[in-house]
Amino acid sequence: MIKIEVEKELLGSLGKMNLHVNLAIEAQSFVALSGQSGSGKTTLLRILAGLEEAKGRIVVEDEVWLDGFKALPPQKRGIGFVFQDYALFPNMSILDNLLFVRQDKALAEELLSMSELLELAHRKPATLSGGQKQRVSLCRAMMNRPKLLLMDEPLSALDPLMRNKLQQEILSLHKTFGTTTIMVSHDPSEMYRLSSRVVVLSQGKVVQDGDAKSVLLRTQGSQKFSFEGELLDVIKVDVIYIAIVAIGQQIVEVVLDASEALDLQVGDRVNIGTKAFAPILQKWEKK
Amino acid sequence: MNRLKAVVSSIEGEESLHIIGFDYEGLCLKMMGLDLPKGLALHSHVILSVKPSHVAIAKNISGALSYSNQIPARIASIENGTLLSSIVLHVKSTEIQSFITLSSAQRMDLKVGDEVLLLIKASELFVLEVLDA
After folding, report:
1. 3-state helix, strand, coil in chain A (%, to 5)
2. Among B53, B126, B127, B130, which would you mutate to test the A interface (most chain A Cβ atoms within 10 Å of its Cβ)?
3. For a disulfide at B79, which of A152, A254, B86, B105, Cβ 3.0-4.6 Å?
């Protein structure tokens, strides 16, 4: 069990903001940390790693990492940290990057072979692809058998195919080692696949906390199929109205009745929804 | 938007699938849905809705129909376009709008004041709002 009770004043995008987080995390669980940028996710991760000062209490199993202002230095906390930008030592080989953390060649080789990187062990990071670099960084984070693995948007710089592959690897590493993990993510599919719990921060506070489906499923009454969009136009056709709405990178159309149409103005933020029974799902054929 | 104020009268569930029964001014309505809407429980007050294009109209009907929701109504107004007919119907204390093709409206010879039956599938009725959530 990891108990976190921390407080810190931050300068956010909307001025001063008080990060105040109180969380209990089960051992061996996988928690996704989400929220808009500036909500305090990365700061919370850095406080857990001991890279940033804060007031409060952090207890990991029976070790006290933070007590008031008294903090255990980062190198004494059993953590692994995976950054978005890999942060590998460029002048060292892949293997040496791992051995730098701990001189345990057997573990290093086990991790590299799990990630299909053993053949690249003597290469320098610069010769690897982004996906390979992030796998090395993940292996390195596992080298000191951390009590807590912290990942700050580890996959956001990768293309969808590589992201998918690394999600599988993260999942199998998590199954093999059972490391309690906190991962910052914005990607709903990633959170759904990997995490057993999703915590959403807003303005330094936990605003949602639950399993991925209950936190991420956008619902409106009985509508399980719901998106936010911007109203671009309302056109009268025959006796009905058609609303044209931009959702993400796409434009969709919705049939309205007169009373609904009268209530809307171009530029309105709208919610589009339907019950889960109506949409038709078809596999995307590669042309 | 069609709005029917109703009270939850029954909830049947099978894993995440539910059939919810509602009392709408003495009429029994049924809705099929996945997980229950947030805050919805037995005796909750809700606003139900249905898209006008999902409301069918029947006149002098006989025989069995699978529609879970068969609601007696009286035609209040008809607006005919070139292809479609927008029909407003009195149901109990409220009004429900239906879009049907103009050819259906003409074939059935629908007129203001006609007593008809509204047909809505349980999968197309939805909870717009849980009032006491």
Report:
1. 30, 35, 35
2. B126
3. B86
Number of domains, chain B: 1
Closest by alpha carbon to A179, among A213, A144, A152?
A144
The complex scores an ipTM of 0.79
Q: In this structure, what is the dihedral angle of CA atoms A78, A81, A87, A91, given to the nearest 10 degrees?
A: 30
Distance spanning both ends of chain A, measured CA to CA: 50
Binary contact (A258, B86; C-beta < 8 A): yes
For A119-129, what is each residue's pLDDT tens digit?
999 999 999 99
Residue B127, pLDDT above cutoff 90:
yes
Q: DSSP class of residue A220? A: B
Here the CATH number for the domain that contains residue B102 is: 2.40.50.100
- DSSP class of residue B37 equals P
Q: Beta strand B45-49 with A225-237: parallel, antiparallel or unpaired?
A: unpaired
- Give dist(CA B80, CA A26) in Å, integer: 63
Of the candidates A221, A222, A257, the beta carbon closest to that of B97 is on: A257
C-alpha dihedral (A160, A163, A165, A167), degrees to nearest 10: -140
> Is the predicted pLDDT of residue B106 greater than 70, yes or no?
yes
